[in-house]
């Protein structure tokens, strides 16, 4: 089984804020000793941190649920509870994080040490010391901690390489990578020898250096899932230059020019923007008997499909076996990289809007529906958060929650929908009677 994993679906949950405390101090001439309950601590965030030592998402194969710790409860003497430590999750460079529900890109993590908060911890609930007023100098009111953010995420690894080697299986991509870098990919005289991306660093004679990725062989129909399909096409998205490796000896019985067209068609079908990247055609296996004649025919067919004033792609005849032409190819690749800018990987429409962790003022504060058992059901982010943060062990807190519902217009809305005295109203699993 391959130890390479480039996609994963995980669930993260930030820590809940600590509950506020109801407490009183004993002090002469102060009613009930005065309020002395402190606030709860902040819940821990869930943070992704890029670790350049990781090369795969294998850590997420069996561990898919991550939960940060909750904040400490408030204490007496007005002391705040301790905030929880953040949960750090290490991911490899080149990890794209998407929201599983919307498919939008949340962040693209490419720099070593880069940090991103994917789930924010809840704030601590307020203790009764916060609710003291001249009219109510000894309140028995406290808040529960705010729930932490919970979300399902899709992680997608796209290797960080300046140059990508593409081509049909067995055209010599792995052999080329092994010759120009210190990488040791698996090499064999059969199709799909490479089943995971291999990465290596190239250093040219002039001192230039760049990263090269050898991607598993494509075949016709790959963009529709044939062969290894789109499983590894994503890894070419970050590359700035494509080296299109072609078996010019036609040892597999295929036409080199037809191979060239077929691979380009797959790249275009997968992502139109891949064709914006400059290509260098690598005519490999030039040490074989028929290669020179096939190269001549290839150039003629290529020129026939370009207009007179269009610039033809560069073609470099090489032999990975005899190392013929490699220095020239690498120098040309480095030169092309120098003048090729970074490509924007995602459009604005792909990106999630900047996160806002308050309430949407335009969104309705609550919604009313009716269950099959004739119970009125209240829902809505704002209302449900108020409910979660209400301490139902204290009568004053329950009365405060009732006043908040009335202030939001819940009573009037229920009355307008036909609710009568004694009807059951449900919020989550909590039920109470409607009093007209």
Automatic annotation (TrEMBL):
NCBIfam families: Obg_CgtA, Obg_CgtA_exten, PRK12296.1, PRK12297.1, PRK12299.1, small_GTP. Residues 358-436 form the OCT domain. This is GTPase Obg. It is an enzyme of class 3 (hydrolase). GO terms for biological process: ribosome biogenesis. The keyword Metal-binding applies. It is found in: Cytoplasm. It comes from Streptococcus cristatus ATCC 51100. Residues 2-160 form the Obg domain. One of its GO terms (cellular component) is cytoplasm. Keywords: Cytoplasm, GTP-binding, Hydrolase, Magnesium, Metal-binding, Nucleotide-binding. Mg(2+) binds at residues 174, 194. Monomer. GTP binds at residues 167-174, 192-196, 214-217, 284-287, 319-321.
């Amino acid at each position: 089984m391959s130890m390479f994993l480039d996609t994963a679906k995980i669930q993260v949950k930030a820590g809940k804020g600590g509950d506020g405390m109801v407490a009183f101090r004993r002090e002469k001439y102060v009613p009930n000793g005065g309020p002395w309950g402190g606030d709860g601590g902040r819940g821990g965030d869930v943070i992704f941190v890029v670790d350049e030592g990781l090369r795969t998402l294998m850590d997420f194969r069996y561990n898919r649920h991550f939960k940060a710790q909750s904040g400490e409860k408030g204490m007496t003497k007005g002391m705040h509870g301790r905030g929880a430590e953040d949960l750090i999750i290490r991911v490899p460079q080149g990890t794209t994080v998407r929201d599983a529900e919307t498919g939008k890109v949340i962040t693209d993590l490419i720099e070593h040490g880069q940090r991103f908060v994917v789930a924010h911890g809840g704030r601590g609930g307020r203790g009764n010391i916060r609710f003291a007023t001249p009219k109510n100098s000894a309140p028995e009111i406290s808040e529960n901690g705010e729930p932490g953010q919970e979300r399902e995420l899709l992680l997608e690894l796209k290797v960080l390489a300046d140059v990508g080697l593409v081509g049909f299986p067995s055209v010599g991509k792995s052999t080329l990578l092994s010759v120009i870098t210190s990488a040791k990919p698996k090499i064999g005289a059969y199709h799909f020898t490479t089943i995971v991306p291999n990465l290596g660093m190239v250093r040219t004679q002039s001192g230039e250096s760049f990263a090269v990725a050898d991607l598993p062989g494509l075949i016709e129909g790959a963009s529709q899932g044939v062969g290894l399909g789109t499983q590894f096409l994503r890894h070419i998205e970050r590359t700035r230059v494509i080296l299109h490796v072609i078996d010019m000896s036609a040892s597999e019985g295929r036409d080199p020019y037809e191979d060239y067209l077929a691979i380009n068609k797959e790249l275009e079908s997968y992502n139109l923007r891949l064709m914006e990247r400059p290509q260098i055609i690598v005519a490999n296996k030039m040490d074989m008997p028929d290669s020179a004649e096939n190269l001549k025919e290839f150039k003629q067919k290529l020129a026939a499909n370009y207009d007179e004033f269009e610039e033809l792609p560069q073609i470099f005849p090489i032999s990975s076996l005899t190392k013929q032409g490699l220095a020239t190819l690498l120098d040309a690749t480095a030169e092309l990289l120098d003048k090729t800018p970074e490509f924007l990987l995602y459009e604005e429409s792909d990106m999630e809007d900047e996160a806002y962790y308050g309430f949407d003022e335009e969104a309705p504060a609550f919604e009313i529906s009716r269950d099959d058992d004739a119970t009125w059901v209240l829902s809505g982010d704002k209302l449900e958060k108020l409910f979660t943060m209400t301490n139902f062990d204290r009568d004053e807190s329950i009365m405060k929650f009732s006043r908040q519902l009335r202030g939001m217009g819940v009573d009037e809305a229920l009355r307008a929908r036909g609710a009568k005295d004694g009807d059951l109203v449900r919020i989550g699993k909590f039920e109470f009677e409607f009093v007209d």
